[in-house]
Amino acid sequence: MSPGRTPTRGGGTSRRASRRRAVEILYEAAQRSVDAVTLLSDRVGSTDAEVVSDYTITLVEGVTVRRERIDELLEEHAQGWSLDRMPVVDLAVLRVGVYELLWAADVPDPVAIDEAVGVAKELSTDDSPRFVNGVLGRIGSIADRLRAVL
């Protein structure tokens, strides 16, 4: 968020709903070729401001700031898949999942993976949950080593 802007925030939003909303914002930004934080800022700063939870904001900002490193990890661990070949929604789910695995200290690794799989079940194809689980599982298995060098 830009300085001076106060987003409209949802008080009782569940973390799963926040994750889902973050994926939707990242997906929309990718489809429109715009910066996700700018899109989010425009949304919560408009006169018809939507309610966006603090955690959604944290996820969108975190993924955006660390996107280059997140994408490097995804390229390395998505065996046989380039980012360009992945469905855009799966890529958004994976980016949020990697962010939570490596930078969200209050989210245990199994929870980050399980939540990403759950969001993939809600938003993507029948094959996506298994794909997301596999990629995040590989990254999760070395998460401690990765966190040590981040």
TrEMBL record:
GO molecular-function term, one example from the UniProt record:
RNA binding
Q: TM spans, by residue? A: none
Say what the protein does. Involved in transcription antitermination. Required for transcription of ribosomal RNA (rRNA) genes. Binds specifically to the boxA antiterminator sequence of the ribosomal RNA (rrn) operons.
Name used for this protein in its record: Transcription antitermination protein NusB
Q: Which HAMAP family match?
A: NusB (MF_00073)
- Is Transcription regulation there in the keyword field? yes
**Any single GO CC term annotated in Swiss-Prot or TrEMBL for this entry:** cytosol
Which Gene Ontology BP terms does the record give? DNA-templated transcription termination; transcription antitermination
Supply the alphabetized keyword list.
RNA-binding, Transcription, Transcription antitermination, Transcription regulation
- Annotated signal sequence is none
Q: What organism, scientifically named, is this protein from?
A: Amycolatopsis cihanbeyliensis
Q: Give one Pfam hit by family name.
A: NusB
Q: Which Gene3D superfamilies match?
A: NusB-like
Boundaries of each NusB/RsmB/TIM44 domain copy?
17-139
The similarity comment for this entry is: Belongs to the NusB family.
